[in-house]
C-alpha cells in the first residue's frame, strides 16, 4: 500500500500537487497539543483562502488540495502517536474541519469525510482490525474516501466462488465524496449469499487504485465543486473476510458485542456533526469575507428617503450605514450562538467516545439513551447551523452592494456550498425529531441519517 493515487487527466484535469510542495518541509513536524492542531488547520485555511474562488471556478479534481492536507498532518489527527499520529479527540477534529472550511468549504468537507471514514474502524471493527487499519492509515498518511450512499441500492456482496476466505463487492454508487482522490475507499454493501446472514451489511476498506473501481468524474453541482463527489462503478472487488469490519472471519458472522450494540450506530450522528462544523466554517467565512469587502469597497447610499422629518445626512462611509452595521451585528451574534451550541455537541461526542475504549468488551457501555440524547443535541445544532448559515450566506449581498456580485469576488460560492450540502438530508426531519424529544421524550430510532 502506498499513498500515491493515479488518474487519467484526459478524463478530468486535476490540480497540480507540486504547487504546495513547500509545505511538506514547512509542516514536517506535527503539532504537539490541541491548540497546535487547531492552529495548523488555520494555517491550511490561510493557504487555501486567497485563491479559493478561482480554484472553484477552474473546477479541477483536487489532487493538490488533498496533498496539502497530507503535508499538514491533519489526516493523522486521530492516529496513534506510536505510528505518527496526533491522538486528538473529536472535539479538536471538528474544530479543525471548521477552520479548514473557512478557507475553502470543499476542502473542509473532504477533510471531514476522510476523518469520519478513517475513524470508522474504531466504531465498527474488531480490535485486530482497529490495530491494522489505524496503523496503516496513520503511518502511510493515507486519504480515505467512501462509496457509502444509503439512498442508492446497496452494493451486492457475494462469496468468492474460487476462495471461501473472500467476498466480492459489485454495483455502483451515485455519490462518492473524495473517493476519486483517495488512497483507500470504504465500501458498504449487503450480503446476498444464502445463509442466516443474508441481507446483513458489511463495511470494508479497499485500495482505490485497482481495475474493479472506476470513477465517472461527473460531479457538477452548484456548490462544493472541489469535493469530487461523482459516481463510481464497483466491479468484482475482492475483499478478505478478515477485513469485513466487525465480522468473525471464521464464522462468517457479525460479532454481536461489536455490531449489535448502540455504540455501532454512533457513525451516523458523528458524520452529521462533521456536516454541521463545515457549515459553520463556511458561514463564518462568508461573513468575514463580506466584512473585508465592505470595509474596502462598499459605497454608502447617497440618498435619504426625502421625508419631511428627515434630519440626518447620508452616511459618509459604508461602515457608518445603520442597516449595514445592524446586519453585521445581528449575524455575528447569531453565529456566536450557533458556535456555542455546536461546540457543546462537539464536546458531547468526544466525551461519549472518550468514556469507552474501542476494545470489544467495553463498547456495550454506551446505552441507547446516551446515544439518543447526543443525537438530539446534534439534530438541534444542525437546525440552527442550517438556518443561520443559509441566512448569513444570502444576506452578505445586502451589506456589500451590487458590485460584490462580480464573479471575481466569489461571494456567491458560500451560499452555493451551503445550499448544496444542506440538502443532503431534509432538515425538516431534524426539526420533527427534536420536537418529539421535547414533547414526548422520545429518542430517535437509529437510521442511515440519524
UniProtKB/TrEMBL annotation:
Gene3D superfamilies: Acyl-CoA dehydrogenase/oxidase, N-terminal domain, Butyryl-CoA Dehydrogenase, subunit A, domain 2, Butyryl-CoA Dehydrogenase, subunit A, domain 3. Pfam families: Acyl-CoA_dh_2, Acyl-CoA_dh_N. Residues 276-424 form the Acyl-CoA dehydrogenase C-terminal domain. InterPro entries: Acyl-CoA_DH_C (IPR013107), Acyl-CoA_Oxase/DH_mid-dom_sf (IPR046373), AcylCo_DH-like_C (IPR036250), AcylCoA_DH/ox_N (IPR013786), AcylCoA_DH/ox_N_sf (IPR037069), AcylCoA_DH/oxidase_NM_dom_sf (IPR009100). GO terms for biological process: L-leucine catabolic process. GO terms for molecular function: 3-methylbutanoyl-CoA dehydrogenase activity; flavin adenine dinucleotide binding. It comes from the Eukaryota. Keywords: Flavoprotein, Oxidoreductase. Residues 44-138 form the Acyl-CoA dehydrogenase/oxidase N-terminal domain. This is Acyl-CoA dehydrogenase/oxidase. It comes from Sordaria brevicollis.
Amino acid at each position: 500500500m502506498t499513498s500515491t493515487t493515479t488518474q487519467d487527466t484526459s478524463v478530468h484535469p486535476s490540480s497540480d500537487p507540486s504547487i504546495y510542495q513547500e509545505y511538506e518541509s514547512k509542516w514536517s513536524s506535527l503539532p504537539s497539543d490541541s491548540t497546535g492542531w487547531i492552529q495548523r488547520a488555520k494555517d491550511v485555511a490561510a493557504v487555501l483562502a486567497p485563491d479559493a474562488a478561482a480554484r472553484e471556478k477552474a473546477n479541477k479534481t483536487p489532487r493538490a488540495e488533498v496533498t496539502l492536507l497530507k503535508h499538514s498532518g491533519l489526516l493523522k489527527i486521530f492516529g496513534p502517536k506510536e505510528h505518527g499520529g496526533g491522538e486528538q479527540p473529536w472535539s479538536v477534529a471538528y474544530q479543525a474541519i471548521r477552520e479548514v472550511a473557512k478557507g475553502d468549504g470543499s476542502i473542509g468537507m473532504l477533510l471531514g469525510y476522510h476523518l469520519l471514514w478513517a475513524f470508522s474502524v474504531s466504531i465498527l471493527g474488531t480490535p485486530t482490525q482497529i490495530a491494522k487499519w489505524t496503523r496503516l492509515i496513520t503511518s502511510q498518511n493515507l486519504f480515505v474516501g467512501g462509496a457509502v450512499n444509503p439512498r442508492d441500492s446497496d452494493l451486492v456482496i457475494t462469496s468468492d466462488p474460487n476462495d471461501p476466505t473472500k467476498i466480492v463487492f459489485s454495483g455502483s454508487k451515485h455519490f462518492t465524496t473524495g473517493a476519486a482522490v483517495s488512497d483507500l475507499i470504504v465500501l458498504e454493501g449487503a450480503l446476498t449469499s444464502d445463509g442466516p446472514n443474508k441481507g446483513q451489511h458489511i463495511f470494508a476498506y479497499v485500495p482505490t487504485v485497482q481495475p474493479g473501481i472506476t470513477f465517472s468524474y461527473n460531479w457538477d453541482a452548484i456548490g462544493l465543486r472541489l469535493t469530487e463527489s461523482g459516481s463510481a462503478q464497483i466491479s468484482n472487488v475482492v475483499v478478505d473476510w478478515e477485513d469485513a469490519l466487525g465480522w468473525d472471519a471464521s464464522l462468517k458472522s457479525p460479532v454481536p458485542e461489536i455490531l449489535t450494540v448502540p455504540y455501532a450506530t454512533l457513525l451516523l450522528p458523528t458524520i452529521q456533526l462533521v456536516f454541521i462544523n463545515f457549515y459553520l466554517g463556511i458561514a463564518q467565512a462568508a461573513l468575514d469575507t463580506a466584512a473585508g469587502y465592505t470595509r474596502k469597497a462598499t459605497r454608502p447610499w447617497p440618498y435619504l428617503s426625502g421625508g419631511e422629518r428627515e434630519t440626518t445626512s447620508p452616511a459618509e462611509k459604508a461602515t457608518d450605514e445603520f442597516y449595514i452595521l445592524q446586519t453585521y451585528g445581528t449575524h455575528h451574534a447569531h453565529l456566536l450562538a450557533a458556535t456555542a451550541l455546536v461546540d457543546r455537541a462537539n464536546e458531547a461526542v468526544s466525551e461519549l467516545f472518550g468514556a469507552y475504549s474501542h476494545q470489544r468488551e467495553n463498547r456495550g457501555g454506551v446505552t441507547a439513551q446516551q446515544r439518543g440524547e447526543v443525537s438530539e443535541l446534534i439534530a438541534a445544532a444542525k437546525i440552527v447551523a442550517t438556518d443561520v448559515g443559509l441566512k448569513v450566506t444570502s444576506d452578505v449581498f445586502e451589506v456589500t452592494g451590487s458590485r460584490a456580485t462580480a464573479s471575481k469576488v466569489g461571494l456567491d460560492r458560500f451560499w452555493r456550498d451551503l445550499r448544496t450540502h444542506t440538502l443532503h438530508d431534509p432538515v425538516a426531519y431534524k426539526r420533527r425529531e427534536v420536537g418529539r424529544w421535547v414533547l414526548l421524550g422520545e429518542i430517535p430510532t437509529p437510521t442511515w441519517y440519524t
